[in-house]
Amino acid sequence: MTRRGFSGSPTIGVLSTHPPTRCGLATFSSALSRGLRAGGATVNTVRIADGSTCDDTEVVGELISGSAASVAATAELLNRCDVALVQHEYGIYGGPDGDEVVDILRALRVPTIVVAHTVVREPTAHQRWVLEAIAAEADQIVVMSEAASGRLSTGYDVDRRKVAMIPHGAAVATDFRVRRAGRPTLLSWGLLGPGKGIERVIDAMASLQNLPGRPRYVVAGRTHPKVLAAQGEAYRESLRERARSRGVADAVNLETGYLGAESLRALIQSAAAVVLPYDSTDQVTSGVLVEAIAKGRPVVATAFPHAVELLSSGAGIVVNHQDPDALELALRRVLTQPGLAGAMAAEARHLAPSVDWPVVADTYLALAQRLCASRSALL
User: 3-class DSSP state for residue 96?
Assistant: First the structure.
């Protein structure tokens, strides 16, 4: 194969969901792409189609799931770049467990980085095959926590030399001053749906209403599109009913509006603590967790792997999933012990620079340049 020379400022072909799709993966990919461009790379995005219209000039094509012609066209668009950067989640590609992505990877002729957003601890046989096939085709697999790296390296048939850990990025606050008004606020945010553990905090709020200022719990974010399509707003209404039945309806605010980056930043920095009460004991990547750290806020979380890892130095309190008393006590401590909350916030500020998007994007860019240079040396 004859390939044009590598100049040092690569063109990176990104395959991912992309705005206006509203999901964590689209937000991640868009922010990473901006960081790569700021570092000097050209970024061409192939967007996974979801029926919405995208007018982003950086989007050079769309992948239509279930279409062999679209799979082939996607591979050719990525092959026009110096390196392909493929975002992987099981649910975003066509085929069982999204196995169409394997066909795309097999058709690529350029160096390929795959970002594995999910590494299942106990995968089905087919999920295991998909991720192992992806790893076999890729030049590099990126995960976003040491927990994910260890799980991938020991629990799957993957060449450990291909596995790299690069943290999930976030926009680090330029001013960490807390801007509070009114009642102390506990905050959770993100697309709303079962599994986020919001019920745990609603139940705990009944025990916290005797505290000074009568703290409130704000849950910000629209209902997840898949939940909305299947159930409408029934889940959100069930949370409102739970708050009413616990006598804390005036202390629980389920906000439905879309929050832009600036509005979200202001909301996070007004919070006494960010709460991640997730049901999952398997989650090795949490963008919300990283955002909270990047804004210098204390965190209270259930013991999912990414939280256990990132909060181990003191930026938060981790509680057992099945221990509601421990959750209530942790929230009470953060709300009533300024010294503890201040120490947690200080540690979050200490960790924040390592997850700043420019730092994260530069790490990806260096990896892409290294792969391109290695490939060029072999030609």
Answer: helix
State pLDDT tens for residues 113-157: 999 999 999 999 999 999 999 999 999 999 999 999 999 999 999
DSSP one-letter string for 157-200: ---GGGEEE-PPPB---S-------SS-EEEEESSB-TTS-HHH
Q: Are residues 320 and 190 in the same domain?
A: yes
Residue 85: domain span: 11-169+356-378
178 found inside a domain: no
Q: Is the pTM of this model over 0.85?
A: yes
d(CA 120, CA 148): 9
Residue labelled with tokens 């390929």: 112
CA distance 338 to 344: 10
What is the number of structural domains in the chain? 2
Q: What's the pLDDT tens digit per position in 21-73?
A: 888 899 999 999 999 999 999 999 999 998 888 888 889 999 999 999 999 99
Is residue 200 a part of any domain in this protein? yes
The CATH number that applies at residue 290 is 3.40.50.2000
